[in-house]
Amino acid sequence: MKQRESFFHLLKPDHLYAASMFFAVITLLLVSQVYIYLYIKKRRFRIISQINHQINEWIGMIISEKEFPVIDLTKELKLYLKKEKNREFLIDNLIKIRKNLTGSAAQSIVELYKNLQLKDDSIARFKSYAWHKKAKGIYELYMMDQEAELPDIYLYTNSKNEYIRMEAQTAIIGFWGFEGLTFLESLEEPLHEWQQLKLLEQLSTLDIVPLQNLSLWLRSGNEYVKHFALKLTDIYRQLDMHDLVADCLQSANVKIRAQAIKSLGRIADDSTAEILISHYPTETNDNKKKILQQLATIGNNNITSFLEEVLKEDDDFLKLEATRALVAVNNDVKILNKFQADKTMASIARQIQYEQA
Asked: What gap in Å lies between CA 196 and CA 222, rounded to an integer?
């Protein structure tokens, strides 16, 4: 009881007043911050709505009247577009729209981009020291067909930064097509699997032209370039590259050898089967399976004895691939009858017969 009396004795009215004022100030600050946040959000929404409305008017004029719109910005819109964030939003929207248009309509979007002097923003981002801004600048210039900037963009196809490098390479192929692959000759940095897939997808939409420098890429000291060149040889069936592809089987890189095996299957000649067989003993199990799969496609009954030797190996997966190849090159599933005494082979034979059926 005495402790409670002592506590209330110490708690003076001034203390209560100070505490009340403190919490009142905190509450006021919190309410003010919420109000300011909601005001900014609402204002931002209004700005975006006005920009979108203006864009839709321009696009409607382009599509319906097939003429370039008169650029007549309201005072409020001019004020909005003084801010970099709003101009960036406008660029992003123009790019999205251009992706869905073709011909003169798409070109009108580019003209709109230039007339609004938005290219200056893209150039500023491109020249930025921040990697994410530089990469975005390259993307914007490419998507808005600013080919005049191509020489400067080309310099970044060998950038140390992966994202800048990828955007620059994509832009070069976008502008030049297959001829843009010349950057491979000086590429020292990695060309990762994802970027290879992106470039191949980009090239797939273009008409094929002679790959005059393919032999240089297959000899490249950059293993990523060599790997990509092997894929090009495979996809576009560059038959005259057979010997250079066969040389890639000597590579210490298992991925290059794997792609070389696949590519040889696509551009095979009379010597290919023997070349693959000669490399079979020193290969990894995965690459051995790839060799057997290619032999099933390009081989003939002359390799029957080799395949029967493979059936003596311990690896059941290799036995399965060898059995498939054996049936394929002899074009007769009955050849498996002589292996029925072996339980494993009998099981594999049933699997092959099921596949054949």
From this structure: 14
Query: How much is the pLDDT for 83?
Result: 84
Closest among 56, 66, 54 to 103, alpha carbons compared: 66
List, in order, residues 6 or more apart from 200 with CB less than 8 Å away: 231, 232, 235
Q: What is the pLDDT of residues 105-152, one digit of tens each?
A: 788 888 888 888 899 999 999 999 999 999 999 999 999 999 999 999
State how far the Cα of 118 lies from the Cα of 81, in Å rounded to an integer.
Answer: 10
Q: What is the pLDDT of residue 72?
A: 64
b/e sequence 254-284, b meaning 16+ C-beta within 10 Å: eebbbbbbbbbbbbbeeebbebbbebbeebe
- Return the beta strands (E) in the chain as ranges: none
Which tokens is 128 given?
A: 């930025």
84-99 and 119-126 helices, crossing angle to 10°: 100
For residue 101, the 8-state DSSP code is -
pTM assigned to the model: 0.81
Return the CA Rg of the chain. Answer: 34
Q: How many CB atoms lie within 10 A of CB 246?
A: 19
Cα separation, 164 vs 170, in Å, equals 10
Q: What gap in Å lies between CA 241 and CA 212, rounded to an integer?
A: 11
Class of residue 137 by CB neighbours under 10 A (exposed 0-12, middle 13-18, buried 19+): buried
Please state, in angstroms and rounded to a whole number, the distance separating the CA atoms of residues 106 and 317: 54
Per-residue 3-state assignment (H helix, E strand, C coil) for 29-66: HHHHHHHHHHHHHHHHHHHHHHHHHHHHHHHHHHHHHC
At 319-354, the pLDDT tens digits run 889 988 988 888 877 777 777 767 777 788 778 777
The pLDDT tens digits of the residues spanning 23-33 come to 777 887 777 77
Residue 158: exposure state from Cβ atoms within 10 A (0-12, 13-18, ≥19): middle
- For the chain, the first-to-last Cα distance in angstroms comes to 96
